[in-house]
Amino acid sequence: NMINQKVVLSLLTKRGYSVEVANNGVEAMEALKRAGYDIVLMDIQMPLLDGLETTRRIRSDPRYDGLPVIAMTAHAMNGDKERCLAAGMDGYIAKPVDHKHLLNVIEHYLTGSRTGLAALRRASRTGGAGSEPALVGQMLSLFLQLAPERLKRMAAAADAGDAEALIQDAAKLQSAAESIEAAALAGYAKAIIGAAAEHDFERATLSLAQLEREVNRLSGGVQLPAARS
Fold first, then answer.
1. Per residue in 124-170, pLDDT tens?
2. Start-end of CATH 1.20.120.160 domains in the chain
């Protein structure tokens, strides 16, 4: 998710960390071969090689013994946490990313303090990108640029009765919306996820229409391309 990626990249760079972005698991494995890293933040849904298989390959290579791998995935996807830990990841961070929690997790592993996941979960909640208004504006602009294509995919999935694809795209959109604190967008996306999980595509389509209207409203009245093909 490009929006979440940019939010996290901005946060960590301002914190003084040196960050390299890999857009898929293949790039991640190549990056590990080129340079030494102190920690890996692993997205689960990546093209070519997903986060679970990438982690399994890291764990099978003795060169990366002790390298912390932290999962980052949408909280709407049931069972992700268990699959991540089973693949060999050390921890789990749900999207949208809570800034203070993310920094606590990173600092926890970089200092070598292995007191267990329970300690990580005690991190207090803070806001999303809202603490940085300029960043929120940039991310909202990016969100609106990417929205039409995602809405098209969601509409196509609803028309085809493809609950899994609809849930995946809606979860990504919900996560991105929550990252920029767009509560209405996140709420409509959550409603779509709930409807799709029950295979109620009529209700999902109604929520999708509400989502489209909210996207158009946020775009300042500029009509975005229709989501339906």
1. 233 444 445 566 667 777 788 888 888 999 999 999 999 999 998 89
2. 131-218
- Distance of alpha carbon 13 from the chain centroid: 18
Q: In terms of pTM, does the model score above 0.70?
A: no
> CATH 3.40.50.2300 occupies which residues in the chain?
2-126
Nearest to 204 by CA among 139, 172, 156: 156
Which CATH code for domain 2-126? 3.40.50.2300
Provide the β-strand partners of residue 74: 95
Determine phi and psi for 148, rounding to 5 degrees: -55, -45
Q: What is the pLDDT of residues 120-134, one digit of tens each?
A: 333 323 344 444 556
Per-position DSSP letters for the chain, written without gaps between them = -HHHHHHHHHHHHHTT------SSHHHHHHHHHHS--S-EEEESS-SSS-HHHHHHHHHT-GGGTT--EEEEEETTSTTHHHHHHHHT-SEEEEESPPHHHHHHHHHHHHTT----HHHHHTPPP--SGGG-HHHHHHHHHHHHHHHHHHHHHHHHHHHHT-HHHHHHHHHHHHHHHHHTT-HHHHHHHHHHHHHHHTT-HHHHHHHHHHHHHHHHHHTTSPPPPPS--
CA separation for the pair 213, 200 (Å, rounded): 20
Q: Which residues contact 35 (CB under 8 A, 6 or more apart)?
A: 20
